[in-house]
Amino acid sequence: MKNARAFWDNSAARYAKRPIRDEDAYRRKLAITQEYLRPDSRVLEFGCGTGSTAIIHAPHVKNIVAIDISDQMLEIAERKARDAGVENITFKQGTLGGVELEKAGFDAVLGLNILHLLEDLEATLARVHSLLKPGGVFVSSTVLIGDINFLLRLVIPPMQVLGFAPYVNRFGKQALIDKLTGAGLSIEREWQPGKATVFIVARKGA
Ligand SMILES: C[S@@+](CC[C@H](N)C(=O)[O-])C[C@H]1O[C@@H](n2cnc3c(N)ncnc32)[C@H](O)[C@@H]1O
Predict the structure, then answer these.
(1) Is residue 70 helix, strand or coil?
(2) For a pLDDT cut of 90, what percent of the chain falls above it?
(3) Domain limits at 188?
């Protein structure tokens, strides 16, 4: 975990400058997410990065708690929120398990481009379930390392040894769905913008 923090701190400035890979897919994910948000929604985003998505959703909800392991990511996120005049996001440093959060306190939890980076996916999903209000939704988007081209997968370990890639969890789509349902969430919406990525909205029972 210490390594992850250092890795993402070192990557923050570069990450902030990186263009969105697929603008159309990003816009569609935002639009689908907003179908589940209300002006009185309390939202939690973990692994919020430089805050771009939270800043877009903020005007449509009551408030957002946005957490990230990296101080450097959060520094950029806080600056961007200030520049955008957004005042209803509270940024906190830490992991989902490490930050004190109100149980059953959130209408929506967002985990975007983060699930494949977690060593403790089951524990994270159990925590998501405990933080959602009954009937609340978990919106996630992730790379499916288990479903990417075999040759690309071979490149990951040497990149990790050289410090150019973080830890990655190697689940494929079905394994992820099994873990979500195993955590007590039912799959409400599923969309694959590409073979090795998936966007899922899963709901906690009312
Ligand atoms: C690939 S970036 C995604 C950022 C943002 N969600 C997005 O979609 O652009 C992953 C982010 O998760 C953060 N992160 C990595 N491991 C984490 C963990 N265990 N807990 C919280 N944040 C973590 C990193 O610091 C980084 O900001």
Answers:
(1) coil
(2) 85
(3) 2-204
